Amino acid sequence: MRKWLHGRALSWLLIASSAACGGRSIAGSAEAFEGERCVPGQQIACACGSGLQATQVCTGQGIYGSCSCADDDRSGSSPSASAGRSGSVNPRTGAAGNGAGGAGHSGGSSGLSGGSASAGAATTGSGQIISVGTDALVDAFIGEAGIYVVLGNSITLSDRSGNVLQRVDAPREISAAAFDGEHLAIADQAKLTSYDLQLTQISSTNTLETCASLVILSQQRAVCGPANDWDRVFYTYDLASGALLGSSRKYTYNGIPMRRVPGTDDFVTVTVDSSPSDFHLYRLLDSGEASYINESPYHGDFRVTDIYGFDGSPATHLITDAGLMLRIYGDGCGEMASSFSTGCFAKDGSIGTLSGDQLFLGLDTDAQSQVYAVVDANPDPFGDPDEQPSNYLLERIDLDSRTVTKQSTISLQLSQMIAFRRDVTGGGVLVAFRKGSRSFSFPGDPYPGHEVRSIPF
Fold first, then answer.
1. Are strands 403-412 and 122-123 parallel, antiparallel or unpaired?
2. Structural contact between residues 258 and 268, judged by C-beta atoms closer than 8 angstroms
3. Contact, 386 vs 27, CB < 8 A?
4. Does residue 385 carry a pLDDT above 50?
């Protein structure tokens, strides 16, 4: 058994150690704020000091946050060498205040890495809130008709101003979602249902096992992966008819999260709760069976997480959260190769724009080899116990020259990035995240809330 230490056991050891050191402090209770009581997610108009109108959003505590006025005076400011999290921010809206620190890289270097960037780092506005509340966020997507937000209990289609155009309430808890630009596939505890761009149902079928993760590949085929990582079977369904097209062999310790390799009929799984962690590559055959190809080299000496991106479509490289470029189909990438000598996910350089301990929190790439990214400029392994918004870098990176060509600072109360997507039509990005502290969560803790924002960039 190659996975010698199960991540859940390690997490409990860390939690126990934390408790032994005096537990944790709880801050930010509803009683600590003053304001009008409201329904979480409700928005009202408010006036900015400049005379322009903005919005106030009801927080998860049932009170209105501050008026989300964009700080226009800072839009052309140059980057500062101070740390990205040093500025003051509004604790409820996440908007940067007048004293917010500029976007700087660790080690004191100035704003844009790569040396030949065309624009300085500016503080961008907090963007338009599309969804906020205490319901669990499953995923968020961008389509021609608008923005789709999938929660544990509903699906909504909104325009880029946050106005809900369509809503479908789920009869059971939603467990996974996938989108290919034409079809939205939704898996709940019992069924797999497909919708068109207007959220009109196309098909619905009972699943053999609850889908914990889901990808849509060519010919309207959706591959469902259940939650168990022992003898895991992948099931392929036709989104047009709901028919079961095929089942895979049983696979063990290959991870739960699934993502399509853009432009191919391949998908990647990643182990996130066992050690060592690896990337695993699968291919959907014409028969409808998802067949295992191979994995990243055993003990490959590089960081593996479920935060990663690709270099285009069809993709040839996977980009890790540490900026490492991995050639997906290297020499010897096949099912007959040993996991010690496999050529899948072979090291092939670095994106080269991260400094010090910086990490990517979200990655998306367009057809022109432009990578859009959210960067954690000052990663804190112990999280943010105060659950306050922090500053992050929003970047556009030219992959060919390996340089940052645009950079802004955004302030978010981000615990876990759920989705980060380039919005070509809207001219910005979509960030969808779980709120709260980035420190360890404890069993029984209430869901800290979610937020989905459309941010101009």
1. parallel
2. yes
3. yes
4. yes
Residue 162 is predicted with a pLDDT of 95
- Cα atoms in the 13 Å half-sphere on the side-chain side of 77: 20
How many other C-beta atoms are found inside a 10 Å radius of the C-beta of residue 306? 19
Of 9-23, 169-183, 242-256, minimum mean pLDDT range: 9-23
Amino acid making up residue 4 = W
- Which residues, including other chains, have CB under 8 Å from residue 200's CB and lie 6 or more apart? none
Query: Which residue, 412, 417, 352, is CA-closest to 387?
Result: 412
Which residues are CB-neighbours of 195 under 8 A, at least 6 positions away?
Answer: 155, 168, 183, 184, 185, 186, 201, 202
Query: For the sheet containing 146-151, what is the strand order?
Result: 137-143, 146-151, 154-158, 164-169
- Chain mean pLDDT for the chain: 79
Q: What is the pLDDT of residues 92-145, one digit of tens each?
A: 233 333 222 222 323 333 333 333 333 334 455 578 999 999 999 999 999 999
Give the contacts of 238 (CB within 8 A, at least 6 positions apart): 203, 220, 221, 245
The mean per-residue pLDDT over the stretch 75-91 comes to 33
pLDDT over 60 (residue 155) = yes
Give the pLDDT of residue 57: 66
Please tell me the predicted confidence (pLDDT) of residue 297: 86
Contacts of residue 295, Cβ cutoff 8 Å, sequence gap at least 6? 254, 278, 279, 280, 281, 339, 342, 344, 345
